[in-house]
Amino acid sequence: MDDAVIGGGDFVVLRADGCFAYQLAVVVDDAAQGVTVVVDAQGEKLRKQTLAPPLDPDRVEEHLRAALRFLGQKEPPLGADILLWAIEHWDLALG
Q: Given this model, what pLDDT does residue 40 score?
């Protein structure tokens, strides 16, 4: 039996091999952890379908710093490897 997508917007929830698909697992995991999504002023989730603008690949550091601020985390000092610094200094109490 093959996994199949039914209709234009549906996706596989239970795969043919009996495992739950990533799309379902990630939503359940997020809900269990109290994770919410980033939304625009109208409450729409930011995504291509709602015409959210793409991030500028020439402004990666600026975007990462903005994401840390949005998540309530401290920002690394200038010149630090942002991702490594964020992993080492992530504070669950802040975000």
A: 81
